[in-house]
Each structure stands twice: as C-alpha cells, then as structure tokens.
Amino acid sequence: MPQIPVTRTATDRPPVPDVLVIGGGIIGLATAWRAAQRGLSVTVADPRPGRGAARVAAGMLAAVTELHYGEQTLLGLNLESARRYPGFAAELEEASGRDIGYRACGTLAVALDADDRAHLRELHALHLRSGLESQWLSGRECRRLEPMLAPGVRGGLRVDGDHQVDPRRLAGALVTACERAGVAFHLGWAERLSVAGGRATGAVLDNGTAVDAGQVVLAGGSLSGRLGGVPEDVLPPVRPVKGQVLRLTVPPSHAPFLSRTVRAVVRGSQVYLVPRESGELVIGATSEELGWDTTVTAGGVYELLRDAHELVPGITELPLTETRAGLRPCSPDNAPLLGPTALPGLLLATGHHRNGVLLAPVTGDVLATALSTGVLPEEARPFTPRRFSPLSQEQPV
After folding, report:
1. Per residue in 98-135, pLDDT tens?
2. Which of these, 84, 82, 80, 86, lies nearest to 100 by C-alpha position?
C-alpha cells in the first residue's frame, strides 16, 4: 500500500521553549527548576546533568566562617541564601522524593598556633561588627566540643548557623525535580550561542543540534567564558580555579569522629573536614591557578592529608576512598554574575567561585524572577554582569 506523504506545517514544529539553560550543574538546575515552577517551558543543555563540579564540592554552607575582608556586599547575598536553605531543602526533597543530606550541624573554625589564633580573633571581631553570630572558644572548649581535635588547638570560633549539604545528593534531587516539573534535557554541550536581530535566540550544541529559545541562561560554571558566539563585551570574565578534594570513610564500628564541619588555616592554606551522616569524611581543598588542569597530584593529596592530620590526628586510621579535582568558576571580584547582560535575551548565572552550593537557592529564585518578569530582584543588583562592562560606571563588589 503506497505511503501517504505527510506535509508539515509551522504548527507541527516542536514548540520553542521559553528558556534554554546552558549548563546542568547545581546552579543551572536550580535555575531551571525554579523557572519551570513559574510556568515557563525550560530546556537544559548539558552532556551529564548533575555530574559536574557537584561531584567535587564539599557542600559547606559557610556564609559566616568564609567571610573575607572586602566582601561585605557578597556576605549579604550569602546570608540571604543561607536563610532560604531550610525551606529550599524541604521543598526540593518533597518535589524529588530524595534526601539531599542537609544538616544544621554548625561549623568550628580553629587555630593551631599563635598567628592563626590572632587571625581568628580578627575574624571574630569582623563578625561582631557585621552583626554575625559566632562564639569564641578556648582550645580546651574546642576539644570538649570535638574530642578528636589535636591537643595543640589554641582556640576557635563556633558558628552554629553555618550548615552543610551533600552536593551529589543535591544535584541528583535537582535533576529529578526538574524532570517532574517538565524540564527537557539535551545531553550535549552548547558550542555556540545563536544570535539573530541583536538578540540571543538559542544555541547550537556540539552534535550540531540547534536549540531555539525565547531566553538563554548561561550557567556553565568555569566553562561559561568559552561559549562561542557571545559578543566579546558580554562574555563573562570567569576563570577556572582548581581544587583537589579527598574522601575518607569512617567505619561503622569506629567511635564518633566529628559532629560538625571543622576548618582551619594550616601553613597559610585553608583546610576543612566535612563529616557526612553516611560515614564519609570530605577533606579539602586546594586552591590552584592552573588553568584547565584537573589532575589529582601526589603533592595535593599529601598537603591535604598532612594539614588535616595536624588538625585531627585520627584521620590516619581511616581508609582513603576517593581523590578528585574540579574547577571553581571565579570572577574578578570573587562574586557571581547574575541576571541580564547587555545582549537582549542572554542572562548569566555563573562566577560563584567557592559559594556555588550555598548560593543555589537565591540564584534559582533571582533568575526565575528575572526570566518571568524581566526585573532583577534587589538582592541581586550588586551582582549584575554589567558591572564588568567597560561602559558601566558600577564598581565591582
């Protein structure tokens, strides 16, 4: 029987999504999920959604203990996102049916010598001036709180408001929540932004597929500055900063190891230990300006274990189960780029540096609002991408 030819009309073509999110990491997924909840049709382009930097991140929600001098504006955004985290976590777990490992266990930052103790005292004074809650403890009080700490601990800061989440579980839950909210996935990387009539209209993927969209969000992490087709004055100034991370396992038969995140500065380098309820202990992280290199090195592993051992000597008894290296997306002022760019139709959600997991709730909310209303919320305005434009008079954060 002869086949009857089918004539396709314009109405037979797949509908163009309202939003294309380039990048399926935690930031891109949070943006896609929140945008879909606003009633927008959303597509995410990523070869392996949820399996990028989230595989390396430790998941500290440390708005207070990671405060740096000169970053008070960023502090406000970090605190706002931390405030939203309990509700965000509960909503995401209900939407996905998956636990994300959110723990309100607090953080203890300690000092191992007199210089570090003086630095922590200065940080405590900065906390007090900034209206933040942290409690100074003597070395004995620190060891009473965490008996596995080294005898040489000289003092510390207890910050009960700095929590943690498991980034791997978080990413998996976001993928599921996105799927249930109707988000579509293209399993490929965007190679080039599509621009027509002076407006971003989608992207071409590495397999040649052209994906059209009403608006585009570039949430590609450290790769955001490499997307082709983006005008030079709009391309985000994001560079990769390498971080190596270790994972150890506390056997079930072992006595309780750590009850909260513990962090310190050892020989001028930050080290932290993040205990999971599963028995996993995350140790990190190096900070290396080595371009796109993601090699796990013997030197990096040695330095992390050495510094962590000075802080908590008992780690030498634990099995080393995983070593990884990833790339943080870093902007010139260490703050994220959020919202519309000078190119109509193109928005950014990148440059989160060490705060990507922490800033997921507020980033998702901010981008969803900007996408659905065209208005960038007040809390995100200091972080507009246009602050880096040569024509902008705005100063970096």
Report:
1. 999 999 999 999 999 988 899 899 999 999 999 999 99
2. 86
What gap in Å lies between CA 182 and CA 365, rounded to an integer? Answer: 18
Domains of the chain (ranges, CATH numbers): 17-103+165-237+332-397 (3.50.50.60), 104-164+240-330 (3.30.9.10)
- CA dist 21 and 193 (Å) reads 11
Question: In the chain, which residue ranges form alpha helices assigned H by DSSP?
Answer: 26-37, 72-96, 114-129, 139-145, 167-180, 298-311, 360-373
190-196: strand order across its sheet: 190-196, 199-205, 210-212
Token reading at 120 = 């922590």
pLDDT of residue 267: 77
Phi, psi of 230 (to 5 degrees): -85, 125
**Prediction pTM value:** 0.93
Task: Transcribe 266-285 into DSSP letters.
Answer: ETTEEEEEEE-TTSEEEEE-
Residue 394 pLDDT > 70, yes or no?
Answer: no
Q: Identify the three-state secondary structure at position 335.
A: coil
pLDDT tens digits, one per residue of 51-68: 988 899 999 999 999 888
Question: What DSSP line would sit under 128-159, residue for residue?
Answer: HHTT---EEEEHHHHHHH-TTS-TT--EEEEE
185 is written with which tokens? Answer: 């996935």
Question: Among residues 342, 248, 341, which one has the least CA distance to residue 350?
Answer: 341
Burial bucket for residue 7 (CB in 10 Å: 0-12, 13-18, 19+): exposed
Torsion sign over Cα 312, 318, 323, 324: negative
Task: Provide the pairing of β-strand 155-159 with 107-111.
Answer: antiparallel
Residue 359 has phi, psi (to 5 degrees) of: -90, 5
Give SS3 for 364: helix
The Cα 199–Cα 48 span in angstroms is 28
Length of the chain: 397
